[in-house]
């Protein structure tokens, strides 16, 4: 058996519900392979559990583990990177009607996965210069913009009514401390960061576009409001500065 074939067979052994036929092809001790199979699956399940603890609590340990086993059997990880395991499981979970989540539970899952992704995603260091409105703003590349049906990011124990509202949040990892941070956004703030992430153009061009979409004048009050948010984002490193060259 070629090495590539042996590797594919070994992956099948780890995830196929009935691996006995595949075990024989590897010409190794079946019990050792079954032990390794269980270790692999347990490691992946534990990783998912650490990424989405509130969702696991909502499902209950037994139902969560049953769901994770079903996922491994039906649609095992497709990415070679272990950091992608929780998001792949989350996508599978929301597609299964028998694990139907309420809108609030769905928001919790989306929030937990965004925090996990921000903490683990690889991001190249951005080369920037001091922020100026005439250049393209550079968004922290770990940023995830969430539009949640419930404000599930509020601290545990907060008044329930404070979480029963839709909210837009930026989740990102600080490039120096590597701590995951979040900020609630206004409609204007969310639009600015979305356009910045899409490389729309200079900060001035983004402000003009937002004002045009809203049919609002780009007056002094509008500019001061945006400038105040930008100052805060720069301090928090949600925005990293401006693009170095003039290619907008």
Please give a structural write-up.
The protein is mostly helical. The protein folds into two domains: 3-101, no CATH class; 124-243, Outer Surface Protein A, domain 3, CATH 3.90.930.50. Helix content is 54%, strand content 11%. It is built from eleven helices and six strands. The strands form two sheets. The protein has a three-stranded antiparallel sheet with strand order 1-6-2. A three-stranded antiparallel sheet has the order 3-4-5, sandwiched between helices. β4 and β5 (180-184) form a beta hairpin. The longest helix has 22 residues, at 30-51. The protein is elongated and about 75 Å long.
CATH class of the largest domain: Alpha Beta
Question: How do the strands line up in the largest sheet?
Answer: 1-6-2
**Class per helix and strand makeup:** mainly alpha
SSE order in H/E notation? HHHHHHHEEEHEEHHHE
| Beta-strand percent range | 5-15%
Number of domains: 2
Radius of gyration: 23 Å
Low-confidence parts lasting 5 or more residues at pLDDT below 50?
Answer: none
Layout of strands and helices, then pairs:
Layout: H1 3-15, H2 20-25, H3 30-51, H4 53-59, H5 61-74, H6 85-94, H7 103-120, E1 128-129, E2 137-139, E3 144-148, H8 160-163, E4 167-173, E5 180-184, H9 187-197, H10 203-214, H11 220-236, E6 239-243
Antiparallel strand pairs: 1-6, 2-6, 3-4, 4-5
Features of this protein?
mainly alpha; Outer Surface Protein A, domain 3; three-stranded antiparallel β-sheet; 11 helices
Quick gist of this model?
By secondary structure, the chain is mainly alpha-helical. Helix content is 54%, strand content 11%.
């Amino acid at each position: 058996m070629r090495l590539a074939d042996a590797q594919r067979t070994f992956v099948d052994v780890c995830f196929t519900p009935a691996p006995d036929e595949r075990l024989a092809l590897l010409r190794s001790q079946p019990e050792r392979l079954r032990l390794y199979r269980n270790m692999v699956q347990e490691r992946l399940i534990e990783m998912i559990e650490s990424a989405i603890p509130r969702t696991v609590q909502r499902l209950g340990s037994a139902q969560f583990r049953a769901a994770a086993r079903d996922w491994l059997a039906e649609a095992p990880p497709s990415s070679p990177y272990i950091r992608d395991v929780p998001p792949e499981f989350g996508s599978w979970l929301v597609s299964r009607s028998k694990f139907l989540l309420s809108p609030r539970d769905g928001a919790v899952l989306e929030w937990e996965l965004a925090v996990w992704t921000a903490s683990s995603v690889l991001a190249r260091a951005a080369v920037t210069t001091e922020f100026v409105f005439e250049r393209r703003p550079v968004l922290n590349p770990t940023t995830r913009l969430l539009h949640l049906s419930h404000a599930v990011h509020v601290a545990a124990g907060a008044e329930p009514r404070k979480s029963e509202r839709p909210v837009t949040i930026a989740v990102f990892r600080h490039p120096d401390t590597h701590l995951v941070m979040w900020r609630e956004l206004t409609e204007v703030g969310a639009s600015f960061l979305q356009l910045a992430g899409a490389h729309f153009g200079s900060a001035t061009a983004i402000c003009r576009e937002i004002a045009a979409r809203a049919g609002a004048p780009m007056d002094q009050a509008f500019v001061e409001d945006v400038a105040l948010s930008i100052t805060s984002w720069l301090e928090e490193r949600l925005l990293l500065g401006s693009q170095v060259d003039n290619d907008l």
